[in-house]
What we know:
The longest helix is centred in the middle third of the chain and has 20 residues, at 415-434. The protein is an alpha+beta fold. Among the domains are: 1-79 and 176-247, no CATH class; 452-621, no CATH class. Strand 19 and strand 20 (238-247) form a beta hairpin. It has a four-stranded antiparallel sheet. A four-stranded antiparallel sheet has the order 2-3-4-5, with no helix packed on it. Strands 6-7-8-9 form a four-stranded antiparallel sheet, with no helix packed on it. The chain starts with a helix and ends in a 6-residue tail after the last helix. It is built from 18 helices and 33 strands.
Amino acid sequence: MKFYIAAFVLLVSAAFTFPKREKTFFQDVATIHDSKYGLPEGTINRIQIINAVPTAQSKDSFVEFNGTRWIASKNKIEAEHLPEKNLPAGVGKILSAISYQGKQWVGTEKGLYRNTGGSTWETVLPADEKYSWSPREVAAMVVDSKGNLWFGSQQGVGRLAGGKWKLFTGAEGLPYNHFTSAAAGPDGEVWFGTEKGAIRVEDDYFYYRFSRRWLPDDAVNDIAVDEFGAAWIATDAGISQIASVPMTFEEKAAFFTKLTEDRHVRMGFVAPNNLQVPFDKSSYQLGISDNDGMYTSMYGAAQAFRYAVTGDPEAKALADRSLKACKWLVDITHEPGFPARVIIPIDYREDVNEQYSREYNKRHQLSDPFWKDIYPRFPTSEDGNYRWKCDTSSDELAGHFFFYAVYYDLVAETEEEKAMVREVVADITDHLIRNGFVLRDYDGLPTRWGNFSPEYMASIWGWDQRGLNSMMMLSFLNVASHVTGDAKYEASAKMLRDQYNYHINAMHAKEFFPPENVVPWDNNLSLMSFYGLINYEKDPALLLIYREALENTWLHISKQKNAFWNTIYGALAQKFTEDAERGLFDPEVVYPENKLYAPNKVKSYSDWDARSEDIVETLERIPLDMIGYEMDNTHRLDVQLDPTPGQNPGIGWRYDTYAVPVDERGHVRQDRDGFALVYREVGGGMAEQEGTFYLLTYYMARYHRLIIN
């Protein structure tokens, strides 16, 4: 598809210089035109490209776009002239009409008709190898730039090419069928307007553009496509301009690094921001989250992988900054090794402790008995200059240990840098061991989600977390052993294995039923922890167990098109295969009591597929707009709902059994369920996420050679 560069310029304001161009893909970019651009408020009924200028009609007024604003236009969009005479009786209201190959075609409420000369009309009954239709509600027709006829009807979309029909329903990828309009682009693509969004058909693939991410309103009244291929979409609340901009992975990475640095860094910590005006990124205010440590760790890890593959000194500087920020979270608290969730200045703009008052805690416990009644939730630092948030969770630990190991291996060059990592890793791990494998809060009790103790694993409260938390604890100990070289960490891991079967628990590190136990952020914690567990394990017998645990986890998430999870799985599966090829799993040594076990497991896991094509697709289609818009996909024709008894409603996938593409979901984070058909990020239009969603996967996948840049 050709492109319309103005849309991209409007979005990024040419704020940075692109690196040298490599292989390109096309990035869809939406620009919402409303009254801020001079557009009349309310419904835009029609839109056309007149003398290369987008011209729109709102009630009885006409406006045109001068490149920056909408201004009054002398051009007028002529009313559509639909044939009214000589049609067969009972065809219903005429909805669309077009001239094709010298003949008039008409779509009506009751059918599709073609004029065969004079007053003679024939009913058209499209059919292909799979379907035979008598179309109804034929509300859209268009001829594409290659001379093919398209129509949109209640049954679906039809294309007549070379005298043969091809018909598309939900099974062929059509997402919706209540059509209102159609327009052709310059390179064979076709756009359809519907009562709920717009659809672009390109090479028989349907791209669905709906919700505020793409349109000011889902009710599409008209579409026009300019000479560059940009679609101008008239809706009940303004106009959307959607352009496909050529871009490389590196250009997209530069965009997201700048976005993060410009609007998401507070005192070295990376976090989502708050928008004071809905959907207006310029109104941002730096914010805090529950998991600043995890988000900063993931951003730091992204920059560490970036440094490993590019050698860019900026990447090292950003990884260094992230390390110091994460270490500060550990150094500021009441006890060595306890990491805070967040650090804020003492004069922070919000009274955070009153948000978590004793009264609030008591009320919250009525619906959530395990909510901690701890006050203040933001204790004051020893120097009196800061507050730090307690009740730290396993999310934080997973992020910290993942980052520290990656930084140590890929970034730390001087002894001072390596010593800094050794110190913080030892502090956190020693805190866990000293306190019976729990995060001991400043009230002396374990944090709610930071309990990795054998007692908790054996309790009714900890059974559903037993697999994940056992695996995570062993991973932390493996990272500590690798980074520090201290034998005490392997001794602790051995004790947990020998006395409490933590390695056996770890074989079920992924909960998949009942639905209330299946939370997507656990997939994030699990896979980041597998990375440290498997990379630093030396015992081949344990590696066989952990590889099986990884596969069990992967099988339940492999079709979600989560590029980060695909990348970690691919990296670890690749390492296992390399270990097997060098003879690490000798059956005379590894489980010699059953000499078939190791060879069979090696054979089972040698044929792995991280689906690099899904990694590439997701990297290409992650939207540049990091606002988490609400997106409801339950109405889609190309989606099947999960039929599993007891499953949560609104879980489903496309007919190809994979999750809908990432730019058609509400997700802008790694730890989200791709099968959730209804989703909105926390904050909705009042928050913007940072760029780690793209950056960590991209640079990690490059480092592990799972994609070619």
